[in-house]
From TrEMBL:
SUPFAM superfamilies: Formate/glycerate dehydrogenase catalytic domain-like, NAD(P)-binding Rossmann-fold domains. This is Glyoxylate reductase/hydroxypyruvate reductase. PROSITE patterns: D_2_HYDROXYACID_DH_1 (PS00065), D_2_HYDROXYACID_DH_3 (PS00671). Keywords: Oxidoreductase. The keyword Oxidoreductase applies. The lineage of its organism: Eukaryota, Metazoa, Chordata, Craniata, Vertebrata. The keyword Oxidoreductase applies. It comes from the Eukaryota. Belongs to the D-isomer specific 2-hydroxyacid dehydrogenase family. Residues 11-327 form the D-isomer specific 2-hydroxyacid dehydrogenase catalytic domain. GO terms for cellular component: cytosol. It comes from Synaphobranchus kaupii (Kaup's arrowtooth eel). GO terms for molecular function: glyoxylate reductase (NADPH) activity; hydroxypyruvate reductase (NADH) activity; NAD binding. Residues 118-297 form the D-isomer specific 2-hydroxyacid dehydrogenase NAD-binding domain.
Length: 330
C-alpha cells in the first residue's frame, strides 16, 4: 500500500498487477492507491468495504463490477480501469448511468492471444497432449501407420466467429500453414478487416458447415451467450476442430460435451470455460479430444506488463479528465 498526499485522488487496485502498471502509478504522483497485494481475488465483502469513497478503481476480469459494488463505492467514483480487453464482468448500463468512465486494454494483447490460439489449435488438432502422455506412460509401441493421426491446416478452411483484431492476427499466423480459405461471420460484414486476410463473409450455418477449424473470437454479450450450441455443432463436420479463446459463456458446454463424445466434431481446444476454474471433475476433462487451458491466452510477461501499463495510463488520464488511451464508449 502506498500513501501520498491525502488530497490526491484515492484509487483501489483489486489485485497484484504486473510491475509496469505499478511503476506508472507510483511515478505519476497523481494518485494515492491501495492494492490488494495478492494473486488471489479480493473477497467480495472486503472489496465492498475497500472501495468506499474511492475516485478510481483498477480491476481485473474476475471482479464483478455491478450496481452493488458501484453503490458501495459511492458518488466519488469517476473512473474504472479494467486490465482486460473483455468487459463482460462490467455492468455497462450501471456505469453509464453514474457517468463513470471506463478504460480497458485492447490491442496490447492481440499478438499474445493470437499466438496462444495457434498453439492451442495445433496442440488439439495434432493431439499433442495425448501424444506426450502415451510417450511417458508406455503407450509408445512400434511406429504405427494410423496411430495418433490428426488433422492438418494445409488445404483447410478456417472459420472465424467474430472478426476483430484478434481474429485477423490469428489468420495472419495461420496463413503460412497453407490454409486454403478463411471465412468468417459477425453481426455484419467487416470488409476492412476481412480484406487484410482475404476472408469471405458467410452465414453462421455456412461457417459451421465449411470450417475445418473454427476459432471463436467474439465478445461475450447477451447476443453471443451459448451461441456455440447443439445446432452449431450438429452442422459441423465430424473432422472439425473447435477452438475457443474468447469467453466460456459463448459455449453451451453440455452440447459441446455431447458433440465431442459422440464424434459429431473431432476435437476442441478451450482456453476459457464456465466456470473458471473448471472443476477438475467436470466431464469435459474426461475427454481425450478436449484440450483445456486455464485462461492463459494473454499470459506472456511482455503482454501482461503492457496491459497493466495501459490500465494505469487509462486510469490516470480518466482521473485528470483527459482522453484515455483506450476508453470504452458507453
Ligand atoms: C482479457 O483481457 O479479456 C483476456 O481474456 C485475458 O487477458
Amino acid at each position: 500500500m502506498q500513501r501520498a498526499k491525502s488530497t490526491l485522488p484515492r484509487v483501489y487496485v483489486t489485485r497484484r498487477v504486473p510491475p509496469e502498471g505499478l511503476r506508472i502509478l507510483n511515478e505519476s504522483g497523481q494518485v494515492q492507491y491501495e492494492l490488494w497485494d495478492s494473486d488471489d481475488p479480493v473477497p467480495r465483502q472486503e472489496l465492498l468495504k475497500r472501495v468506499r469513497g474511492v475516485d478510481g478503481l483498477v480491476c481485473v476480469l474476475t471482479e464483478k463490477i455491478d450496481a452493488e459494488l458501484l453503490d458501495a463505492a459511492g458518488p466519488n467514483l469517476r473512473v474504472l480501469s479494467t486490465m482486460s480487453v473483455g468487459y463482460d464482468h462490467l455492468s455497462l448500463d450501471e456505469l453509464k448511468k453514474r457517468g463513470i468512465r471506463v478504460g480497458y486494454t485492447p490491442d496490447v494483447l492481440t499478438d499474445a492471444v493470437a499466438e496462444l490460439t495457434v498453439a492451442l489449435l495445433l496442440t488439439t488438432s495434432r493431439r499433442l497432449i495425448e501424444a506426450t502422455h502415451e510417450a511417458k506412460t508406455g503407450g509408445w509401441g512400434t511406429w504405427r501407420t494410423m496411430w495418433l493421426c490428426g488433422y492438418e491446416l494445409a488445404n483447410s478452411t478456417v472459420g472465424i466467429l467474430g472478426l476483430g483484431r484478434i481474429g485477423v492476427a490469428i489468420a495472419e499466423r495461420l496463413k503460412p500453414f497453407k490454409v486454403k480459405k478463411f471465412i468468417y461471420t459477425d453481426v455484419a460484414p467487416r470488409p476492412e478487416l476481412a480484406s487484410m486476410i482475404q476472408a469471405e463473409y458467410v452465414s453462421m450455418e455456412e461457417l459451421a458447415k465449411q470450417s475445418d477449424f473454427l476459432a471463436i473470437c467474439c465478445a461475450f454479450t447477451p447476443e453471443t451467450k451459448e451461441i456455440c450450441n447443439k445446432k452449431l455443432f450438429s452442422q459441423m463436420k465430424n473432422t472439425s476442430v473447435f477452438i475457443n479463446t474468447s469467453r466460456g459463456g459463448v459455449v453451451n458446454q453440455e452440447d459441446l460435451y455431447e458433440a465431442l463424445s459422440s464424434g459429431q466434431i473431432a476435437a476442441a481446444g478451450l482456453d476459457v470455460t464456465t466456470p473458471e476454474p473448471l472443476p477438475t471433475d467436470h466431464p469435459l476433462f474426461t475427454l481425450k479430444n478436449c484440450v483445456i487451458l486455464p485462461h492463459v491466452a494473454s499470459a506472456s510477461y511482455s503482454t501482461r506488463n503492457a496491459m497493466s501499463a495501459l490500465a494505469a495510463n487509462n486510469l490516470l488520464a480518466g482521473l485528470s479528465g483527459e482522453p484515455m488511451p483506450k476508453e470504452l464508449k458507453l
